[in-house]
């Protein structure tokens, strides 16, 4: 029996397993499919909240703690696995921001690089953007990763650690709780035991807790995205070389020239099917920002399920009423963004280390949560959507 069992093999679960193993503990990670194939794979890979000034302080604290760790993580994974996660720190151009003064005030308070720029600045960096851009905001330090490669690298790292047992293609049917303490899980293949259990199941986390009377307000929020294949451009440039964000939609360049566009916000329970309506909406958004994408092939269109929580603040810590059970879920659109800091916070709590940030705002028993609070992820606190329960592509 290992010291810890982690339910869920996304980036949150895999990073948690890495940190616990490196601290000398035995870890079993249970994943219903293959590690890194759900929301962690489906996201865009921007390692900052899209509009960081619109988020609450707890999300900002985690985001700041995580952003600075990605360069180190990328280097370490390349050394240990040989997989380049394509961490690129080429900045983000914001177009048509209607609360630029709020953004500037936030950046000044946080000491975060963010500046107003004019059209000449923008077109000098991205000459094939749409005509008529008069100016915008520039965040030069923003980075992105190629998240499918991050997932592969983390899985390869876990496979190489002798104290980690990966149990894939194994669905957890229920938590095993005896005399008020979590001690393992039941699966179709039988019972798996552990000293302590950590639930990192993303949008599915609440399903397992509900059986034990714990109401977790984390719900699936579908996001659809598309990938364009683009040709080489004159002068050895790519069609797009920096992340661009306008009207809540973003374009993300990959190192091989591909361009990703995202994303929709849809509450459709656990339905991950793509739709023709979303495909058209994404295509129109992409072409409006970068017109030459109209000539490019759409290589892939997919959907994933984000774990939406009230105000976008994840639940991190001990689950009330069940000894030995811990939770790290509800990161909404910022799972990749927050992962290094969110997992470090939980591991600090598990190992009785002094955490770098106050864990109180993330506690699973925080009283300010209301069961229907998903609608509170509004434009002021979130990233440009009117309401998380709106099923229209955002």
UniProtKB/TrEMBL annotation:
One MF annotation (Gene Ontology) recorded for this entry: glycine oxidase activity
Keyword NADP: no
EC number of this enzyme: 1.4.3.19
Pathway note: Cofactor biosynthesis; thiamine diphosphate biosynthesis
InterPro entries documented for this protein: FAD-dep_OxRdtase, FAD/NAD-bd_sf, Gly_oxidase_ThiO
Any one Pfam family match given in the protein's UniProt record, by short name: DAO
Record keywords, A-Z: Oxidoreductase, Thiamine biosynthesis
Superkingdom of the source species: Bacteria
Region (Disordered) residue spans: 373-394
Tagged with keyword Oxidoreductase: yes
Listed Basic and acidic residues bias regions: 377-394
Coiled coil: none
Annotated FAD dependent oxidoreductase domain residues: 3-349
UniProt protein name: Glycine oxidase ThiO
Species this chain originates from: Billgrantia antri
Gene: thiO
């Amino acid at each position: 029996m290992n010291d810890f069992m982690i339910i869920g093999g996304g980036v949150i679960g895999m990073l948690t397993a890495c940190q616990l193993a490196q601290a000398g503990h035995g870890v079993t990670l249970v994943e219903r499919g293959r590690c890194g194939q759900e929301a962690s794979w489906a996201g865009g890979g921007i390692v900052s909240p899209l509009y960081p000034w619109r988020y609450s302080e707890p999300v900002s604290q985690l985001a700041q703690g995580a952003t600075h760790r990605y360069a180190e993580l990328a280097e370490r994974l390349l050394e240990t696995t040989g997989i380049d996660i394509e961490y690129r720190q080429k900045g983000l151009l914001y177009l048509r921001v209607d609360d630029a003064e709020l953004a500037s005030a936030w950046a000044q308070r946080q000491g975060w690089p963010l500046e107003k720029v004019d059209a000449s600045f923008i077109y000098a960096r991205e000459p094939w953007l749409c005509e008529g851009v008069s100016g915008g905001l520039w965040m030069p330090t923003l980075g992105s990763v190629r998240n499918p490669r991050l997932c592969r690298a983390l899985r390869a790292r876990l496979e190489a650690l002798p104290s980690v047992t990966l149990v894939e293609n194994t669905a957890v049917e229920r938590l095993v709780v005896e005399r008020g303490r979590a001690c393992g899980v039941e699966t179709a293949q039988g019972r798996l035991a552990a000293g302590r259990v950590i639930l990192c199941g993303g949008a599915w986390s609440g399903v397992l807790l509900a059986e034990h009377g714990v109401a977790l307000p984390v719900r699936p929020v579908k996001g659809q995205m598309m990938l364009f294949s683009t040709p080489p451009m004159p002068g050895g440039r790519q069609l797009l070389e920096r992340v661009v964000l306008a009207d809540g939609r973003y374009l993300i360049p990959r190192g091989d020239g591909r361009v990703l566009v995202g994303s929709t916000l849809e509450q459709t329970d656990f339905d991950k099917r793509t739709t023709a309506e979303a495909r058209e909406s994404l295509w129109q958004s992409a072409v409006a920002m970068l017109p030459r994408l109209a000539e490019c092939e759409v290589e892939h269109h997919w959907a994933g399920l984000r774990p939406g929580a009230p105000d976008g603040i994840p639940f991190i810590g001990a689950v009330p009423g069940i000894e030995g059970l811990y939770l790290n879920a509800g990161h909404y659109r910022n799972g990749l963004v927050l992962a290094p800091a969110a997992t470090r916070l939980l591991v600090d709590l598990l190992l009785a280390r002094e955490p770098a940030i106050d864990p109180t705002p993330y506690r699973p028993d925080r009283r300010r949560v209301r069961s229907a609070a998903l609608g509170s992820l509004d434009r002021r606190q979130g990233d440009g959507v009117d309401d998380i329960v709106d099923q229209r592509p955002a």
